[in-house]
Specification:
The chain is of the alpha+beta class. It has nine helices and four strands, in the order αααββααααββαα.
Length: 457
């Protein structure tokens, strides 16, 4: 008997999968660039100090359909884990049967005084239990639990991406508001100047050619307004969809926003942020849990090569009369054990094992690729934040220089030292620079949200 026990232990040891070990990843010691401050409670969008944005983010997290779908998938994974865990326990059910039969009188098999027609009543409690000797069921539970953790991480990834997208859309909308307002103010200034120049043309102070140039310039600025308003409406609708608003709200409601700030944000963290912090990103944790699940399923498939032991039994009563069903003589019971060992499956189990191992390798490659993409996204976001700020500072300097240029051009024109064309060129250049400055500010503020998204929030 001891030999058989030792043999069983040796076989069990061959059947089990080694414990999961996180794959080694060559990480940089620390970030070379600076990163924004972290929010203590995870609500990183609070760094913008914008109450309107806070409300929109809360609305999106509560109503967005992508988040709702991710939450439903988590619920499904949790329920499936419960189904898998239930197989570790004995399965108990109760049955009640009633039958009526008629036996043949021509065979002569019925004993005397036994009626041909008989009733039969049977009530029993049935028990079935599989002994998880090789760890197949435990491996299935481990795989399903990893799937649950992965689905929770996928939900967190959706939430993180949603918040970043809401912030990006919000600041894009604010920038379009600013560009629309700038264009409208410019149109008013052009129209006022055009009325003055028409009077000057009537008195012969400027030529017809100069007047037509001014009219063309005013029309050019007016032509820029409709596309900007169109883009603003499109962005507002897109943001409303992110917020999960109903079709009626899309048509009747407007998305609240505050005017765009005129100065960039400066949120930095001292150098030396440990790169291991990036492994907390929900998408990386999801990829790792997919790898854990694939590892467990290899063990689950391998265990099918070994014997399965199932214990079954029932306890109940059986009687030909319902009144005597629960009497002492009617009691019945049964205990049984079954042992099943695959012998010839035409290579099916080996093929299933190879497929599970291939899926594990795929999960490993996907995990490694996810890490590579994560570090690339962080590096890109850090660079984008720095370059966006540099671009904003350069555009601000250009606006100041062109503002002085326009002031000098107008003064030279009034003294007859420059043409009207010089003034128009200065006005056109200033408007372009002001719009570029607004876009650079939007890029700098959205780069911060992209960086927090890349860092996993």
């Amino acid at each position: 008997m001891n030999r058989f026990a030792l043999l069983a232990l040796l076989v069990a040891g061959c059947a089990t999968q080694p414990d999961y070990q996180r794959p080694a990843v060559e990480l940089p010691q620390a970030w070379k660039e600076s990163a924004p401050r972290f929010a203590v409670d995870g609500r990183w969008w609070k760094i913008y100090a914008d109450p309107v944005l806070d409300k929109l983010v809360d609305e999106a997290l509560a109503n967005n359909t992508d988040v709702a779908l991710a939450v439903a998938r988590v619920d499904e994974a949790r329920a499936l884990l419960g189904v898998t865990e239930s197989r570790l326990w004995p399965q108990v059910d109760a049955t009640f049967d009633r039958s009526r039969s008629l036996s043949s009188a021509a065979t002569g098999l019925l004993p005397p005084n036994i009626p041909r027609e008989q009733n039969n009543y049977r009530a029993s409690v049935n028990v079935s239990y599989e002994i998880d000797l090789w760890g197949r069921l435990r491996a299935a539970v481990g795989a399903q639990r990893a799937d649950l953790l992965a689905s929770e991480s996928a939900r967190d990834t959706v939430r993180l991406a949603l918040v970043a997208e809401v912030a990006r859309s919000y600041f894009t909308l604010a920038a379009l508001d600013a560009r629309v307002e700038l264009t409208r103010r410019t149109i008013v200034l052009r129209e006022d100047s055009l009325r003055l120049q028409r009077r000057r043309n009537e008195h012969g102070l400027i030529s017809e050619f100069e007047l037509r140039q001014l009219e063309a310039e005013a029309a050019t600025v007016r032509s820029q307004l409709p596309p900007l308003e169109r883009d603003r409406d499109i962005e507002e609708n897109a943001l409303a969809v992110l917020l999960g608003r109903s079709p009626r709200a899309l048509f009747e409601g407007a998305v609240a926003r505050t005017p765009a700030a005129m100065e960039p944000m400066s949120t930095v963290l001292p150098d030396g942020l440990p790169s291991e912090l990036l492994l907390r990103r929900p998408d990386l944790f999801e990829a790792e849990q997919r790898l854990v699940a694939a590892n467990a399923r290899v063990a689950q498939v391998r265990a099918t090569m070994f014997p399965s032991i199932v214990l079954t039994g029932f306890l109940g009563s059986e009687s030909t009369a319902l009144s005597g069903l629960f009497s002492g003589p009617a009691g019945i019971w049964m205990l049984a054990a079954s042992l099943a060992q695959p012998i010839f499956q035409a290579g099916r189990i080996q093929a299933e094992t190879a497929a599970a191992e291939a899926r594990e390798l795929q999960a490993l490659i996907q995990y490694q690729r996810a890490i590579q993409n994560a570090f690339r996204e962080v590096r890109d976001a850090l660079n984008a934040q720095t370059r966006a700020r540099e671009s904003f500072e350069a555009e601000s300097q250009r606006v100041r220089a062109l503002d002085d240029t326009l002031r000098l051009a107008r003064r030279r024109y009034e003294h007859g030292l420059a043409s009207q064309l010089d003034v128009l060129d200065s006005e056109r250049g200033l408007l372009t620079a002001q719009q570029a400055r607004i876009d650079a500010l939007r890029a700098q503020r959205t780069a911060i949200s992209d960086l927090y998204k890349a860092l996993g929030g």
